[in-house]
Amino acid sequence: MRVILSILASVVCLACNAPSSMSPGGDEPGRNGTLDASTGTSSSDGSTASSSDAAMTAMPGVGPYFEHPMFFNTDVSQLKKANTSDQMIAALGSEGGWGNGNVMQIDTEIDVLSADHTTPMKSFTPTGDFFSPDCDLEPMPVPAGGNVEGETGYVCASDGDCHLIVYQRETKQLYEMWRANIAASGTFQGGCLAVWDGTKAYTSALRGEQCTSADAAGFPIAPLLFTADEVAAGHIDHAIRFILPNNRGQVGFVPPATHGTSTTGSSSAPYYGVHLRLRANYPVDSLPSEGAKVVARAMQKYGMYQADGGNIALTAQSDRHTTAKWAGLLGAKDLAALQVSDFEVIDHGSHIPLTGDCTRTP
Question: What are phi and psi of 17, to 5 degrees?
């Protein structure tokens, strides 16, 4: 079973000395104990688009991706904190708090590409990072001029997470793949692909109980990424994706998560899927930039959900395909003042043991 491999996998911090620039220093085991290496850049473009599409560039990501409200759309500013909130926050703080030396930093390496009916659909060969029945084995759109996470093209040269995220605007399908690699020869190898139907009213089981996605918690990634365009507009209307080192959480997960991974924290530590909310009386105006204040207000209204394991706490969308740019808008450590003790836990239900026995929803 996958969960057995997960629990036996070693939990190794690959980026304890992450750089202060706005880039990831590598993640810990994020999918069933698989180690994620640090990311880098590559000048190679492994796009497999046909010659007639060669002039097309990757269009900016668009949203909100889903026609029906999802868990990340809920205003939780008036909800009571969980009965276990103080205990859980204290445990997380005592075990090291955020990754990266307990500094809340922002990663802006994940891109969201946009596709339409002219975008070529490409089949892929699944790798050992593809899990059945959790993951979807079907062709996905690959826009010319696009890239995987942390790279300038589709070649996963750094052997990092290399997420490939594409939103098909016309069919309203959100394709999210973990560990994608398209070689210059056109060979497409991929890890877990989760295809989200933007027209579907998902239940609390999302894609299935005990099922992972391109993120260990089973969440969609793109809707939880805040963008430079949102920050420039002055508001973020959804909850935010965050990650923690896997030695600071318990095995298992809580709703709305449907999956977890190798964790070795104490019995009071958070579970995958934990929902944190910035305390209402936090002095937001004390933060060093207007962009930081926008993010903090979203944390007070919608909160943030733990989606994966790693060291760079917050995940924003890359500005490579957005109109607004991060430079001068929000710095990588503009939220460094936020401590674990500034947050509260929102209760979404009882802990669910991790079994790895994925049952996909219809």
Answer: -115, 50
